[in-house]
Design a protein that fits this description.
Distance between the termini of chain A: 34 Å
Number of strands of chain A: 4
Mean pLDDT of chain A: 98
Strand order of the largest sheet of chain A: 2-1-3-4
Shape of chain A: globular
Radius of gyration of chain A: 17 Å
Low-confidence stretches of chain A: none
Order of helices and strands of chain A: EHEEEHHHHHHHH
Oligomer: homodimer
Strand content of chain A: 5-15%
CATH topology of the largest domain in chain A: Glutathione S-transferase Yfyf (Class Pi), Chain A, domain 2
Chain lengths: 230, 230
């Protein structure tokens, strides 16, 4: 059985990495079964052979693949007869920007608002590492980052305008059906709801309708996962 | 001959609308000849039948099409035998987000830095209208918006990260060849260079290399246009 090392919290079934969620949704899209292995920041030795120390890591027939974009490309190439994640070479090229938008705009915009909640859900052995490394990255304490998140929310919501305009005009980023572009972006929202009760989206935001569609996909994979009802 | 109403400055050959540049590049991509008609804000009556008062407006065989996204879709559907702007239905769906990213993030980020330079290049009959309407939008004078553009530049450059990461990894947003996604984004950069000497991109920014590729396309269409050597 193929395996995916998947970031987990103190509760083994609380899975909260946006990048791991991309991989899980991509595997489900490909209709490929996978055993997810709860992984903590403290477990770097078990994935040492990737040379990275980060998840997701997919192990498929003895092959180790790490990095969510590499995993998506691997799955597309290794299982061409399965439903396509990209819809062809053009779609593959056009999908890269979505992953980069999520990596460089969406996830960094979310991170300060979520960091303290992540820490609260981390396994005990991960908390000191997480606090130290993330406070260095943020340049302030996790508590300080959380304290002004209400004030940051309008700018964060404004930054979602390209997504909002798109999913107001079509059901999925991929059009009438979801593609990897959808998963690349959805990972951020699943990350948030997995560890935080903070309400990111206004009640009438079209992004909420799209997110609900994403939650329902693949037998409700993301919907059934441990998360808050935000 | 088909015609495109194309925003022009005091000099009839200074064409500076990001949305018109999308349409011009799309027409060139489709290998379709077009007569561009210099249009000023004061010329709203000549395009009154669109009900919008905005360019680009394409007139093709008696059919009037307005809005850059609608024009791209019209060209793709009306000329299916010509080089594709989207690379198929999936590519079309995936292209919408690029136009929305440019509309909602890139162009608004640029506008305050460019507004005074646009005003300087406007036809005399347009200057009062442009100043009044844009100062209302900006909530301050054109001069005030220009005065702090150096200070805004680092945040603007940071906002380009998704584009930068993508074109550092592949020649075009569309992959190995340009697609409408490239034109949707490139329009912003052509807008800037058409009316401003302000240097937006660092010398070593990979976006500059991509922009040079875009400038060279279709016989150097954008490169040959009246602009500043920034």
């Amino acid at each position: 059985m193929r395996q995916l090392y998947d970031l987990a919290g103190a509760e083994a079934d609380r899975r909260f990495s946006p990048y791991c969620w991309r991989a899980r949704m991509a595997l489900a899209h490909k209709e490929l079964e996978v055993e997810t292995i709860a992984w903590r920041y403290d477990d770097k030795p078990v994935i040492a052979r990737t040379g990275e120390g980060k998840v997701p890591v997919l192990v498929d027939g003895g092959r180790w693949v790490h990095d969510s974009w590499a995993i998506a490309n691997y799955l597309e190439d290794a299982y061409p007869e399965r439903p396509s994640l990209f819809g062809g070479p053009v779609g593959r090229a056009l999908s890269r920007f979505y992953a980069n938008w999520a990596d460089a705009t969406l996830n960094p915009g979310l991170f300060p608002m979520l960091a303290l909640d992540i820490w609260k859900h981390c396994a005990p052995q991960d908390q000191a590492y997480f606090r130290r490394s993330r406070e260095t990255r943020l340049g302030r304490t996790l508590e300080a980052a959380a304290a002004d998140r209400e004030a940051r929310l309008p700018a964060f919501r404004a930054s979602l305008a390209p997504l909002r305009l798109t999913v107001a005009a079509q059901p999925f980023l991929g059009g009438t059906a979801p593609l990897y572009a959808d998963y690349a972006v959805f990972g951020a929202f699943q990350w948030a709801r997995a560890i935080s009760e903070f309400v990111l989206l206004a009640e009438d935001d079209p992004i909420r309708t799209w997110r609900d569609r994403m939650l329902a996909l693949h037998g409700g994979l993301a919907s059934r996962a441990k998360a808050y009802p935000v």
